[in-house]
UniProtKB/TrEMBL annotation:
It holds the Pfam family Prok-JAB. Transmembrane segments: none annotated. This is JAB domain-containing protein. CDD domains: MPN_like. Residues 19-128 form the JAB domain. The keyword Protease applies. GO terms for molecular function: metalloexopeptidase activity; zinc ion binding. PANTHER family: CYSO-CYSTEINE PEPTIDASE. Keywords: Hydrolase, Metal-binding, Metalloprotease, Protease, Zinc.
Length: 162
């Protein structure tokens, strides 16, 4: 059911239009002082790619320090993605006034018992300080663990037009 047909973890960074990543950043900044979260979906291949940012409500009981998707909302995202022939390529969330690192809690949620739930998906964490994106990282499952690399926010920082 879950759309993981194509795309994979490299697709987000190598091919996503900057405006898609800017939409993600704007959502995470707007969620501050709570953690924001969502997914990025992709359909098509090559120049016909279509990208969609899906902000999701954070249903964690402690939204200042954690995020969670409501199971029924996540199921609907997956069903819609399948119907539209989209692949989940990124799960994203913010850390409030904390570093953009894939934390031990993030790892536990993404790979319970050391088995990744979405092995072909990038996990992007954006540090939001004072309501503004300060830094970001991307983690992917590789060689039996999550490997994390920093992302340059300048690569996809766009100010809102007036």
């Amino acid at each position: 059911m879950l759309a993981l047909r194509r795309g994979g973890s490299e697709a987000l960074i190598q091919h996503a239009p900057p405006e898609v990543l800017a939409m993600m950043i704007r959502h995470l900044e707007a969620a501050w002082p709570q953690e924001g979260c969502g997914v990025i979906l992709r359909s098509g291949a090559g120049e016909g790619d279509s990208w969609r940012v899906v902000p999701l409500p954070n249903t964690s009981p402690t939204p200042h320090v954690a995020y969670a998707f409501a199971p029924e909302v996540w199921l609907q995202v997956c069903l819609d993605a399948d119907a539209r022939q989209e692949a989940v390529v990124c799960v994203f969330h913010s850390h409030v006034d904390a570093p953009a690192v894939f934390s031990s809690e993030d790892r536990r949620q993404a790979a319970p018992s050391g088995i990744p739930l979405l092995p072909q998906v990038s996990y992007v964490v954006v540090a939001i300080r004072g309501g503004r994106a300060a830094s970001a990282s991307r983690s992917i499952w590789s060689a039996g663990d999550f490997q994390t690399v920093p992302l340059a926010l300048a690569d996809f920082r766009f100010e809102k037009t007036v």
